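Lab manual, section 2.4: Encoding a predicted structure.

Procedure: take the sequence of the chain (277 residues), apply the prediction step described in section 2.3, and record the output as structure tokens. A sample record is shown.
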Amino acid sequence: MTRATIHPVTPDLCYMSQAINPKGARKYLPGARPSDWVADYLGSSVGQKVLVAITGLSLTTFVLFHMIGNLKMFSGRDSINAYAEFLKHDLGVLIWVARAGLAGTLAIHLFTTIRLKLKTKAARPVGYFMQKTAQASPQSKLMLSTGLVTAAFIAFHLAHFTFGYVHDAGVDGGARVNYMDLKDDEGRHDVYSIVISGFSTPWISALYIVCQILLFLHLTHGIPSSLQTLGLVGRRFTPAARALGYGLATVVLLGNLAIIVAVWTGYLPPVSGLTRG
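Recorded output:
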């Protein structure tokens, strides 16, 4: 029988044991920077899932407040036009900072989600012979698809209502004018008439309804999943997180659809005597 050789523990060995930690290397060497840890963390699957969760909840917050702002349609033409004037002109450069931040957040959310999906697929190039996911909801299986469609819809929404590239508005006399040319009595951008004109067109309304339903499906899974990823809810509070997801998604869906239905039914009437600004 041979005696086991016991090696003394040295600082170098301690560092090596930390370096092969599966959760990521810890930086003990002189000159290590916090950015090194950030790069390692965001390069891991855990870090990327956290990034998706944070950006997803940020975008959800914007969607909720955007819907609340749009509901000013029910307060009348002056209310929604004054709100749009405040956002477009009174905020000045801040509105462009906000837009850039939202665009960056969306880009990070999409890029990281696709990267995680590709990483998962590469880890198992050959799929299961039989797919049986007892706990996976239909929404969870469609997250990437609904997310990509929603991103495409955002681009269409901007082209439609913000830049007026998609559809023209009708004015008295039968003429068609660009959305950007519509002004109210005070010379403000006539957002009220733009919304009425847009949702008076069947194919545009149908497209918005379909995309709102897909957004609903995305949020019902995305909200509770993000909360769980960030450790804000545990197994005990999973039902509450799901209820919150469905609740917020339902509020956004009904709030946005209410405007379309109100235009269809005439509850939000068009402006009489509408002319080019």
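Check your result against the sample. The domain at 31-127+136-265 is CATH 1.20.1300.10 (3 helical TM bundles of succinate and fumarate reductases).
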